[in-house]
Design goal:
The chain is α+β, with helices and mostly antiparallel strands. The strands form 2 sheets. The protein has a 3-stranded mixed sheet with strand order 2-4-5, covered by helices on one side. The protein has a two-stranded antiparallel sheet with strand order 1-3. α1 packs parallel to α5. The N and C termini lie far apart (36 Å). The model has no long low-confidence stretch (mean pLDDT 82).
Length: 169
């Protein structure tokens, strides 16, 4: 009952977020955050579920990362948590890595590269763009075996667009 309630709450929150994004009602709220702490919190939030599935999680942080960045912590956390959560869901007895590195650094601006990689089931090359459409998954077998609404990656894609960046393989 508890798991079903959590799944329903997650679905409702995804639908609400997707609706807000589609209507242009989400505004980014930037503030100075400790990026290392945010990434480690995401790892810790997903650690137990990852361990239950026999996975090992690692975080790789570039030594050149600035201590603080000005960004919308809630939305960045939502993007990263969704990616890590998917990696955990689709990986069994494998590895999940969260990598954060500096792509470009100037005295006033930093471009940060994030990568979430796993040894899970993967996505066929010809299906990789499809999964970013709302209510879409790579195939119906995925829905039956792993569940999900097909909204998470569509939300990520749109949030990243608001941040003037993108997601790719």
């Amino acid at each position: 009952l508890n798991i079903s309630a959590e799944n329903l709450l997650n679905l409702i929150n995804d639908i609400l977020d997707f609706s807000k994004i589609e209507e242009g009602k989400i505004e980014l709220s930037e503030r100075s955050i400790d990026l290392r702490q945010l990434v480690n919190n995401i790892k810790m939030a997903n650690r137990i579920r990852a361990e239950e599935r026999g996975n090992i999680m690692k975080v790789l942080l570039d030594a050149d990362l600035p201590q603080y960045l000005s960004i919308d912590e809630v939305r960045l956390g939502q993007v990263l948590n969704n990616l890590v959560s998917n990696a955990v869901k689709f990986t069994r007895n494998g590895f999940i890595t969260i990598e954060v590195s500096v792509a470009k650094n100037t005295p006033t601006h930093s471009s940060i590269y994030f990568a979430v990689t796993d040894t899970g089931i993967g996505i066929e090359k010809d299906k990789q763009q499809l999964i970013f459409e709302h209510f879409s998954q790579a195939n119906s077998e995925i829905t039956r075996e792993f569940g999900g609404s097909g909204l998470g990656l569509a939300i990520i894609k749109r949030l990243l667009s608001l941040m003037k960046t993108d997601i790719h393989e």
